[in-house]
């Protein structure tokens, strides 16, 4: 086995892994910087959140009673056999 080929292979592996490591570290750094910039801009220009006036009105008891009756009938049929 040629020792020079093994040395070259290890050298290329170290260069490749090092460049991936540097790229990932740079990407994480840029994501942190981006988060701080967006947080600052969100404080200066907040997004207006509109409330949905129809979401608070909830349909009540008639539908819930029918669902409860259907569940009770299903359990009764399953365990009656």
Sum up the structure in keywords:
81 residues, flat, 77% helix
Unreliable stretches covering 5 or more consecutive residues: none
Please provide the count of β strands.
0
Q: Which radius of gyration do the C-alpha atoms yield?
A: 31 Å
Measured as a percent range, the helix fraction is over 70%
Structural class: mainly alpha
Sheet-strand content, in percent, reads under 5%
Anisotropy-based shape: flat
Largest sheet features: none
Oligomer: single chain
SSE series? HH
What's the quick description here?
The protein is built from 2 helices and no strands. With 81 residues, it is an all-alpha fold. It has a domain of 46 residues.
Could you walk me through the main structural features you see in this protein, from its secondary elements to its overall organization?
The structure is a single chain. The chain has 81 residues and is mostly helical. It has a domain of 46 residues. It contains two helices and no strands. The longest helix has 42 residues.
